[in-house]
Fold:
Amino acid sequence: MARKHKQTTPAQVIAITSGKGGVGKTHTSINLGAALVQLKKKVLILDADLGLANVNVLLGFTPKATIHELVAGKATIDEIIINDNSGIDVIPATSGIQEIASLDESGRQIIMTALDELAFSYDYIIVDTAAGIGKNVMFFNAGAGEIIVVINPEPTSITDAYAVIKVLSQSYGRKDFSILCNSTPRDSNGKVTFAKLIAATDRFLNVSLRYRGEIGHDMAVQEAVRTQRPFLEVFPSSRASMDVMKLAKNVIEDPVRAAPSGGMQFFFHAMLGS
Ligand SMILES: Nc1ncnc2c1ncn2[C@@H]1O[C@H](COP(=O)(O)OP(=O)(O)OP(=O)(O)O)[C@@H](O)[C@H]1O
Ligand SMILES: [Mg+2]
Structure:
């Protein structure tokens, strides 16, 4: 439990998503969060991979209560928020409970209400989604002010990102997407991967993609997994850390202003009962 101070503007809600699994969403969420904290922002990470919790594992803590208890009415939002040593607050998910992996309408309402309550306590709410085009993933993406789709140079990550963007645009009315190119090889540039995706979306979908940046392929990421801490903390001068600091500065300096306004999307959805 950590949140205290109240902001005058609502949090920017940023969903970190992908089509293909294992492309680096959770590392991006945690390290972008840690970088924003270093830049004096108040950050909450919501582990929205509800049935396969990873955020707490990569931050090295075991939660006593999770979003599962919140949805079941057994804990309040303040009881489940954990303050990590890095200064990030976390809403942890649970592992291996099937009901939560497929949320029903009342579960969604509970989460939206809780996020709405938190909107003025943070500058950024980062939502680390599961991979794919399942209903939960779409729910969290649809409610976010900014959607960052993570891709890597593998062709399947690009085709799967295309599929997520297609569903979000055609079934959820989202037209603007940010793209983060992860695992860029040393002799390449994230814009090469970005160009492949935008070539397909420009041709077949009515959407707008913005290049948000890249994180280079770096052994520091894999080493950090062993220590269960953000790579930004254990290897601050690594290539991946430099890239994620650049990403955080870009997020601050060039915000996405989605209608009605950033974090209040969740609130808006709750009001509409959708
Ligand atoms: N920039 C990188 N450099 C090197 N390895 C990386 C990088 N990014 C991710 N990885 C590797 O990919 C693995 C998967 O990363 P991560 O758990 O963040 O992916 P994910 O998209 O959240 O996966 P899931 O879809 O299962 O939730 C990491 O454990 C790490 O080994
Ligand atoms: Mg993950």
In short: Strands lie at 12-17, 43-48, 82-83, 89-91, 124-129, 146-151, 176-184, 208-216. The chain has 13 helices and eight strands. Residues 12-272 form a domain with the Rossmann fold fold (CATH 3.40.50.300).
